[in-house]
Amino acid sequence: MESADSNDKLFYTLIKKQKQTVNENVQTLKVNGKEVYGTEKLSEAWEDHFQILATPEDREFQENFKVKLALEQNNIIENRIKNGQETLENTDNYEVQKAIE
Q: Does pTM top 0.70 for this prediction?
């Protein structure tokens, strides 16, 4: 019985040591084929990456039909408000279906 207890103790000691030595932080990052090292450089690389994701190129943005439609709708609402006109009321699916028929 003592042998099993000492084996368990050794096992859990080894597991604990492995957990303590693992560094979960990113040490290197490959950007455009080049490896980036160091905390400051890694932070800059991540910042650049997320900046690119957050700001699409204008041509890509304008080609998106849904974006064009949303911009057009926003312009209509803005113009109606600026001209003192009433804005459109919300409609439900029933009213849309009725208008289509």
A: no
